[in-house]
Amino acid sequence: MDITTPQHVPLSVGQEAMWVGWKLDPEQWTHIIPTAFLVRGEIDRARLERAVTALGEAYPQLRGRVRPGPQGPVLDWSDAPGIPVRERTTDLDRDDAVRRTWQVPFDLRQGPLARVDLLHGPGYTVLLMATHHLVYDGASVLILLEALRECYAGNPPAPVDQVPALAEFATRSRELADGPAGEEHRAHWRKTLASGPLDFALPTSVDVPGYTVLSEDLPPDLVADLRDRAAEAGVSYVTVLLAGYFALLRRHCRTEEVLAFVPYHGRSLESLRDRVGYFVNALPIRGEVRGSDTYATLIQRVRGLVKDALRHGDLPLPAIMREAGLTGPEARARTHQTVFQYWHAGLRDGVDVQDLVLDARDARARLSLLDLESTAGFTLAVMVREDSAGTHVLWKDPTGSVGPTVVAELAADYRRVLREIARDPGATLIDLAEDRPGRAEPREGAGPVADGAGRAATEAVAAMVDVWQDVLGIDDIRTDDSFFELGGHSLLAETLVLAAGERLGVDVSIRTLFDFPRLAEFTAEVLGSAVASPAGEEGPHEAPPVVPELPGDAEGEPDGWRSVPHRMSVGIRRQQGAEGEIPSESIICKVYYFRDLAADEERLQEAFRRTLAVNPALGSRYRVDPVLGPQYREEPVDYPVVRFVTMEASATWDDLCAEAQRTADAEMAGRLDLREGRLLRVVCVRLGGRGFALVVKADHTVCDGLSFAQLLRDVGAAYAASTEGAFLADRRRPSPAEVEAAEGRVLGGQQGRELRAAWRKKLPAGVPEVLLRNATRWQDSPPEGDSVHFSVRGDAYRRHTAEAQNLKVTSFALAAAKVLFAMRPSILNDELCFFCPFPGRFVPEAKEVLGNFVNLLPVLVEAPREAGPADMVRAVREGLLWTLQHQGLPFDEVMDEIRDVDATGEQLPRKRRALFMAGNQPEGLRLDGTAGETRMPEMTDALFDFSLWVTDTGEELNCGVVHRRAFMPREVVEDWLEALNRPLEPALEV
After folding, report:
1. What is the distance, to the nearest Å, from the Cα of residue 769 to the centroid of all Cα atoms in its chain?
2. How far is CA 636 from the centre of its chain?
3. Dihedral over Cα of 44, 45, 46, 48: its sign
4. In terms of DSSP bridges, do strands 85-89 and 114-121 run parallel, antiparallel, or are they unpaired?
5. Distance (Å, whole) CA 10 – CA 2
6. How many CB atoms lie under 10 A from the CB of residue 178?
7. β-pairing, 680-686 with 642-646?
8. What is the percent of the chain with per-residue pLDDT over 90, rounded to a whole number?
9. What is the C-alpha separation between 988 and 575, in angstroms, rounded?
10. What phi and psi values does residue 381 have, to the nearest 5 degrees?
């Protein structure tokens, strides 16, 4: 099946490995590529924004995000917002400001994967482009810079369909990794890397760990001499530099076996020559550096090693490491120690990274590239960059594992080695470094770990051995074997944790396998048993990277912007438009009629003002910060909240009702912009004397149904309170930012991991699509809907209530079961499921905070087609209870965990044929003890095939339905609802 669409491509093997790594540690900034330029002159902000928008249109993959696909994760940019541009002023020094800005993680699930910042500081202006490595590599930098220059000048590149080339590369990467086309490459890497244990370790730090970079230029005379030596030896300049680095590693690592990675551009397909994307492939170069070698001998050996590697460089790195049995955290720690990056920044005609001109009639700026500090996940990265300013060397130690003292020694000795090569290539290599603090000691080869099977011979371990053998297809697995050394990889890891959880009756996190890859350790961690690790062995311990905070205090940035809770954040991101606007997607609007009261204008204004003061979500402005995501800022309520419309003196009550209904219909049609705030709108339509109606409208993005009911209670209390102090006395509530922080602690901890595992187990094949009456695709279904209102009163209501009590279910659950049973003959598929909103307030801080926390989740109704009415009730009850107990995981994460997707790659329920059912709490507005009569505007858009709202007032059951006209006539819907007036079945009639 071809899963490529014009806005949707599969991930390559390398991209998927990066995606899995990000899921294990979403806060990482390892794979961000920052391109920072010192600016001389003036940049026109508006022109820059237009240029960046054009870049996002020319290279839409930069705006993408990772989503589940039917055959694995995909990069999708459908409906994606533009690349954000942000301008800010700071008091920080230049390098600190740049690092704090680029070292902020990207959210690969949300995107976009690029951002632009214009930083103004003491004596400097910096243009910073930060892009995630998932969609970008070193060769892409020059392509994008040329395009930026042209877009800024008003000459955007002609549109080119990016999909075919990206899809071709992804498909080919999988064919090479797993198919016969890659067998020759795989054989080469098995032979090259699997030749005995690796005896190689970088020197360790003697300093306090901390972010370390060291930048220097090679002297021009040394560069000229090295180029002469390269020409004499018949090799490239970079080969001489790499050979010098190998000699340096031998000296400081005290070993004659060296392993360093070298990036290969990966653009062997003609279609990739001028593409922006992640095509680079880091190749491991493993070779001997003997004490008897001359530099000339070493240069030729390195040349041969690199040529062999490049011939087989199209095999993706994850497949290379798998073939060599070097997968998993332990192997990565041993192998991914250093990378030698060579970047010729002058290869693209007309693009000078030290003098890139952004020219327009009214604004001109010259850009000079600063250090490129990305490391791609290696302990020590050395980048040699050539440009018009010469040869530049940047030493990058992001975690401080090597440390500034040792890095400075390495840099000084590297220059010394290069001087030796330039002076006399026939000289013997410099002796091994003398012992100093931080020097790596020679180590014994890593042999087999002592067999711990005798001590771990328990039933639990035996069961786990069976699981591993089934998943890996290998016999005779020992308890000290590592999953990754046995050939396991990220996709098999997901299979194994699911199988282990099912076999042993526990929930297992994929992170557990990565942290404890040996069978005995893994079993002990999963089961909490006394199974010990093999003697003398410790599991890997990785300290999470320290992400510098952006300037600002604990409450947010100094200008008052703060983070919003998760559910609201998802909605705001989804609604953001191409120009940054955040239009409302859904509105709550209701009308409350007070026939016997006169409208007190001053009291009404004050009541709604006080209500907004304790519920800031409706009075705040919102934005999507390109770095920090959706945020809100509280605004003073210094405007009249209520708008008054006075009817003519001759108007009757019926005239008022009609006018109020017209006002409500107009408010439903009008959309708000969350950037502007003022998301509560109230209109009072009044007669000259007694009698008025209140039209209350709130944006659903920041106010769900429970919050709307709370809003009305607050209004009633504020209207009755004699003073503002009396009203505020018992309404001190946490802020939305405090709720967001509490949610983060839960979702990032053990409870979050348990919820994810439970949903994966519950819906292994995703959410069933419910095809009602015909099999038309959702995308081909007209959205026009019709509304039906239905009430159950009198004896029928009393019978319904008694049935619910008898069956120990809620009134809503019984109503949903009755309607589902009536609909069942019209449902084409056997599976039964509906979406239902749950409160979503899974942290105590959210209990009384107004916002949109509602969590729309699937409820699986496990009732066979032949099930009777009572069985249907029980199945609905069990489905609701299970989802209620697991409602803490937000909808978008549920869909991601179960890899739920339709043919378009869309996760939202709006892209599937589905049912919606909700039980509403009775709510109303009371003023001076008088309850307003409630009416709702008609709804004409049908998101779902069939949506049912059920409200039990205690006196009657009120039902509202919105259905798609294309699928069912009104008469059919009314017949289904009529089931509510009938007994569930004769035997149960009370």
Report:
1. 25
2. 33
3. positive
4. parallel
5. 10
6. 13
7. parallel
8. 43
9. 47
10. -120, 135
Look-up of token digits 């459908």: 78
The mean predicted confidence, pLDDT, of the chain is 84
Which residue, chain included where needed, has tokens 């204004």?
605
Q: How sure is the predictor about 273, in pLDDT bands with cuts at 50, 70 and 90?
A: confident
| Cα torsion 181, 183, 184, 185: sign | positive
Q: Indicate the residue type of 71.
A: Q
DSSP-based three-state secondary structure for 649: coil
Mean pLDDT of 544-558: 36
CA 295 to chain centre: 48
Strand partners, 339: 261, 381
Q: How far apart are CA 65 and CA 19, in angstroms?
A: 10
838 in helix, strand or coil?
strand
Give residue for tokens 């120009």. 579
pTM: 0.56
pLDDT of residue 195: 61
CA angle in degrees (0–180, nearest 5) for 676-682-683? 125
Query: What is the reported pLDDT for 939?
Result: 55
The pLDDT-based confidence of 905 (bands split at 50, 70, 90) is very low
Closest listed residue to residue 649, CA positions, set 685, 689, 684: 689
Inter-residue contact 402 to 202 (CB < 8 Å):
yes
What token pair was written down for 961?
A: 């339905």
**Can you tell me the distance from the alpha carbon of 507 to that of 23, in angstroms, rounded to the nearest whole number?**
18
Contact 299, 242 (CB under 8 A): no
How many residues appear in the chain? 990
The answer to whether residues 268 and 168 touch, using CB atoms and an 8 Å cutoff, is: no
DSSP 8-state code for residue 428: B
DSSP state of 618: G
869 touches 819 (CB < 8 A): no
**CB under 8 Å to 569, separation ≥6 — which residues?**
563, 629, 630, 740
- The number of helix segments (H) and strand segments (E) in the chain equals 28, 31
Taking Cα atoms as reference points, which of 684, 656, 587, 682 lies closest to residue 939?
Answer: 587
* 891, 897, 901, 905: CA torsion to nearest 10: 90
Q: What is the residue-wise DSSP string for 320-375?
A: HHHHTT--SHHHHHHHTTEEEEEEETT-STT--TTSEEEE-SS-EEEEEE------
Model confidence over 681-697: pLDDT tens digits?
999 999 988 999 999 99
Between CA 460 and CA 125 the distance in angstroms is 61
Angstrom distance (rounded) from CA 621 to CA 868: 52
- Summarised one tens digit per residue, pLDDT across range 915-967 is 889 987 777 899 998 998 886 555 555 678 899 999 888 889 999 899 888 88
Give the residue-averaged pLDDT of 296-302: 93
Number of neighbours of residue 30 by Cβ within 10 angstroms? 19
Extract the runs of DSSP E, i.e. beta strands, from 564-656.
Answer: 587-598, 621-625, 629-633, 642-646
Assess whether pLDDT exceeds 60 at residue 986: no
Q: Which residue type, as a one-letter code, is found at position 305?
A: L
Query: Of all helices (H) and strands (E), which one includes residue 21?
Result: helix 13-24
Contact 588, 697 (CB under 8 A): yes
Between CA 295 and CA 960 the distance in angstroms is 84
Beta strands 946-952; 915-920: pairing state: parallel
For the packed helices 601-614 and 705-720, what is the interaxial angle rounded to 10 degrees?
Answer: 130
User: For helices 566-575 and 736-747, what crossing angle results, to 10°?
Assistant: 100
For tokens 């309404």, name the residue: 731
DSSP output for 924-970: --EETTEEPEEE-----B-SSSEEEEEEE-SS-EEEEEEEETTT--H
In order of 57, 768, 807, 865, 867, the CA distances from 873 in angstroms are 51, 19, 8, 13, 10
How far is the C-alpha of 813 from the C-alpha of 828, rounded, in Å? 23
CA dihedral 899, 904, 910, 914 (to 10 degrees): -70
Q: What does the block give as tokens for 341? A: 């990056």
And the tokens for 942? 């049908």
